[in-house]
Amino acid sequence: MRAPMERVLIAAAVGAAALFPSAALFAVPRVPLEQPSFSRAQGGSPPLSVALGSVSLSLAVAFAAVRPLSRRMAGSTLAATKLRSRATRVACRAMFERFSPGSMKAVMLAQGESRNLGHDYVGAEMLVVGILAEGNERGSRALEAAGIKLQEAKAKLREMVGTGGGGKENAEIPLTQEAMKVLEEAGDMSKREDCAMVGSEHILRAIMSQDESLGTKLIGHMLGCRSPEETREKVLPKINEASNDVSGTVSVTAAGEASGEMKLTETMKYAEDLTSAAEEGSLDPLVGRDVQLERTIRILGRRSKNNPVYVGEAGVGKTSIACGLAQRIVQGRVPPTLRDKRVLSLDLALLLAGTRYRGDFEERLRAVVKEVSESNRRVILVIDEVHTLVGAGSSGGEGGGMDAANLLKPALARGLLQCIGATTLDEYRQYIEKDPALERRFQPIMVPEPTEEESEQILQGLAPRYERHHQLRYEPEAIRASVRLASQYINDRFLPDKAIDVMDEAGAKVRQQLFQEEEMAEDMAERRKLERELQSLKEKKSLAVANEEFTEAQALKLRQEELNTRLSSLVGKMEKNSPAGTGDQQEKLRLLRARVEEAVAAERFDEASELKAKEREVLGAKAEEVWVTEADVAQVVSGWTGIAVEQVSATESARLLQLESKLGQSVIGQQDAVSSVSRALRRARAGLRNPGRPIAAFMFCGPTGVGKTELCKKLSSSFFGSAEAMIRLDMSEFMEKHTVSKLLGAPPGYVGYGEGGTLTEAVRRRPYSLVLFDEVEKAHPDVFNTLLQLLDDGRLTDSKGRVVSFSNTLVVMTSNLGSRSVQKGAGGGLGLGFGTEEDSSERSYNAIREAVHEEMKSFFRPEFLNRLDEICVFRPLTKAMMLSPKIKAVPQKRPPEPSGPGEKRRSARIEAPFMTIGFVGGDLASWVQDPQPLIESIFDTVESALVL
């Protein structure tokens, strides 16, 4: 039988190593111990120093210095101590590892209090002060409920034990034998109560269980008790009340059985009770999804394989179906076999947190499975992202721990555990389907993305909750706009999640704007106050100067300057924070307040009272009716996508009707191309296209300088709201076979993998844009296979497996094929030249177009050309076009950058009227085939004249 003193010392040493493995709390060097020889074959045991290995013995030696033993006696006792088995050492370590963070903090605070009093030990009485100082756990709350205050306890402790001469800051402070017994008893109590951790309430109960403990006496003195029994009568009920604050039990009633208590102590540490949340009304209502919910109820009612798993894209509402099941159970709208069940959402991340050693996770999960299995199938576990079960908790390698999926398989197979899972389709295939034993235990339920009509119904059902949160109202048009604009402009997410987020952010935006308006009103009142005070100071200063009181006038001047500074700062703040679009209501308030001030100044008080009443009416209406409008939703979508607000909110028909005239103002002489593009866009927006394909696909043919790229820029600006919404790819960079992969991204194992493709990454970041493939005929033939898929399916998959949608893009390809035919026609070979008649010119253009089409058919494959909406052949420039006042003959040219650090940029701007073309160009017929040299000639002539 091991001596009690030896057992205490061993527990203290191992516990200290477990609690403070880094020994950072105590800056004491290790104490070398004599290590007598031993042999396991002879039945000997290793000495304490060998058993503890590399663990610091500083705290163990300190624990040995307990009262009433002397340090020498403690040292000899510790040197003679031996551990008989590895199991004993592991058990001691496990006991101290089970201390909760709050209880460990209480021990450290007790050590701090001992140091403050100058003592070199920690007794049970100091543990009481440490528990009280911790302030958060149940032991502290119990003492406070009993009427014990921290400062009073510290004063009473000082009175009881006095002050000592030790307690140096870096000195080690050991525990007394009494304190060690308290900690051991606390660990035993927690095990008897089936608690996972040793809390401060267990330490407090252990202190109260010892009549002669100084801790019990300290509490008794504080409460005025005459005996330990009286002290326990006052404190133990408070401990029980504090312990019941956070209960680990879930009340259930089995079908056909009497009410009872089902202990789920371990489970509730890592789970959320959705049924209780439904009873409290804190869950959002489930709108729709009747088919999936009814199938869930049928699967849960089966005898075997009764574990449904929701499979669908992120954001379609898989988890909300499980919440809807909890609401159905609370409402009683389920079969009798499900009415008394509890739905608990298990958090795997919380289950994994803090599992430092092998086997910790398995112990936690087995405890959860045991409690749920013993509930007589009255608990349904909901595991979101159920694919994370595969591999969760496994340490890897040979002999590693089992993962969560393998731990759950037996319980799922025997029907002891009912589980509802949720995962995406890709992750279900990647993780669940690869494990047939796990897959056959689940019944998949597909959850598709809802339609726009269904999403609108979902938002209407959720709107009251968001209205209460934001304290405003949603217009019906705003709800419809949330669904419509999110579906049209946000392509990388799914309904109804993206529409709910748009509606939520629109409410937050309006509430923030209202706060800014209220702040502006306060600033306006402060401004008027400062202005009146300045006017009063100005009058007083004038009076002081008139009375030759210059000292007072100087003081008033300084005060006036101070107020002017404050006023300027306030005005600047108001201008900076002024909310955009305050509307007619703000303007009405401003005018009413101005009229009130005028009426008061003119002493028309009756009129001022009437105006003040009108102001209150406006403010009351403003406070009572705060609405989220369609414009607010459009601004949120604009902020998400980068599309101009007016483009989002404007109707498509109005924009497309004006598109042809807008493009015709910028691109001169190419009315055929402009009309073809506008017609194709109107057809696309009328719904006469495959919704998965790009909005439209065009091929622009013609020689250089006739306006192909310029039309793309204007089309991007007019249709998408910004010239920056154009993604330009020079296809001459993709002439080699190995460069084709740059479009989608380098494959795994090659340089550049993970950086994304040139095309796919640009469209993924800006999905609403114009994609220009410049000089597409120069690209490698393999590029056209990728373009063929883009035009046909409207999507591409990059090297990382991400699908990029092109359904909201305009695809434009330019080509110089047929340039010879155009130049030949411009020179008169096809009947087209300067001075020809209009009908002859039209016939010649038709001949040019046919020649270009034939040349394109000989170069491109038929299936590629058939997927283009329009092939636009640009007319060659004529004399009338080049002399047109609307033509942009001289493009904007920025002044040259400074060549040196001391040189300044010249802010000259060159403007040349259209007559300059005729003056500088000379024979315009020579420039028709390529107008670029004409532009350079104009610049050379004008710039040379400016230099002189």
UniProtKB/TrEMBL annotation:
PROSITE patterns: CLP_R, CLPAB_1, CLPAB_2. Residues 96-238 form the Clp R domain. GO terms for cellular component: chloroplast. Residues 520-547 form a coiled coil. Keywords: ATP-binding, Chaperone, Chloroplast, Coiled coil, Nucleotide-binding, Plastid, Repeat. It comes from Effrenium voratum. PANTHER family: ATP-DEPENDENT CLP PROTEASE (PTHR11638), CHAPERONE PROTEIN CLPC1, CHLOROPLASTIC-LIKE (PTHR11638:SF155). SMART domains: AAA. GO terms for molecular function: ATP binding; ATP hydrolysis activity. InterPro entries: AAA+_ATPase (IPR003593), ATPase_AAA_core (IPR003959), Clp_N_dom_sf (IPR036628), Clp_R_N (IPR004176), ClpA/B (IPR001270), ClpA/B_CS1 (IPR018368), ClpA/B_CS2 (IPR028299), ClpA/ClpB_AAA_lid (IPR041546). GO terms for biological process: cellular response to heat. Signal peptide: none annotated. This is Clp R domain-containing protein. Its main location: plastid. Residues 887-907 are annotated as: Disordered. It is found in: Plastid, Chloroplast.
